[in-house]
Design brief:
The protein has 142 residues and is α+β, with helices and mostly antiparallel strands. Helices cover 30% and strands 32% of the residues. The chain is elongated. InterPro entries: FixH. This is FixH protein.
Length: 142
């Protein structure tokens, strides 16, 4: 093979590679963390207050994930009057699961992970005890 054919072959290989990469990039799904991120930015001061309230607690919230029982046990330092738990999947928002926490006097909450797909998850819990809002976030791999 002479140099002319080799240069043309290398050029065509490179052009094919660039074409395949451009096609893949155009068809890759890119999920935003949230569709309403402007509103979330405005509400961030409320999140800061939740974190301050959580850090001011005398006992820290405890998080235990059991892969055998496929459940998470949360031990909160105060009773829950209302709140929600969000199982957040960073790579696919369609898999996110939101659970409303009902009013209860117990501080231990058991959440099932049986319906969650395998992979990396973040559990974000917001709860109130009739006076203040609190927030805790933990990561786990199912």
């Amino acid at each position: 093979m002479n140099w002319g054919k080799a240069v043309i072959l290398i050029f065509l290989s490179f052009a094919t590679f660039i074409g395949v990469m451009a096609y893949k990039m155009m068809h890759t799904n890119i999920d935003l963390v949230g569709e309403d991120y402007y509103q979330k930015e405005i509400d961030y001061q409320r999140q800061i207050e939740r974190l301050k309230s959580t850090n001011a607690l005398t006992s820290r919230p405890e998080f235990n994930y059991s892969s055998e029982n496929q459940s998470i046990v949360l031990k909160l330092p105060s009773a829950v009057s209302s709140g929600n738990a969000l199982f957040f999947r960073p790579d696919n928002k369609k898999d996110d699961v939101n659970i409303n926490l009902k009013s209860q006097s117990e501080t231990t909450i058991r959440l099932s992970t049986k319906l969650l797909k395998k992979g990396h998850w973040k559990l974000k819990v917001i709860w109130t005890d009739n006076t203040k809002e609190y927030f805790v976030e933990n990561s786990f791999v199912k």
